[in-house]
Amino acid sequence: MSKQLLHLVFGGRLKQPDTMEFEDTASLDIVGIYPNYKTAYEAWRAAAGRTVDDAHMRYFVVHLHRLFDPADDTTRATD
Fold it and tell me: pLDDT per residue over 37-70, tens digit each?
């Protein structure tokens, strides 16, 4: 059985396009939590595609499984 590798996809408006500081954290768009990188990437791509014309909007994929076990580097090359 393969290891579950949870990923969070979220985004929001940045104060400046060249920073990672959000205008309003209360209005972040939480797209969802996904069981693997492939489905998270598909969700990220769809969300980012909807806002492609807005330079201040950014979406991110967070590797939640790395936060649960930061000492485990075995998934870095394959996730």
Answer: 999 999 999 999 999 999 999 999 999 988 887 7
Closest CA to 29 of 45, 13, 49, 5: 13
Q: Which listed CATH number (3.30.70.2400, 1.10.3630.10, 2.60.40.1220, 3.30.300.30) goes with 1-31+43-79?
A: 3.30.70.2400
The closest of 26, 5, 12 to 60, measured between CA atoms, is: 12
Structural domain boundaries of the chain?
A: 1-31+43-79
* CA gap 7, 44 in Å, rounded: 10
Instruction: Kindly give the pairing relationship between strand 57-63 and strand 7-13.
Output: antiparallel
DSSP letter for 8, please.
Answer: E
Helices (H), the chain: 37-50, 64-68
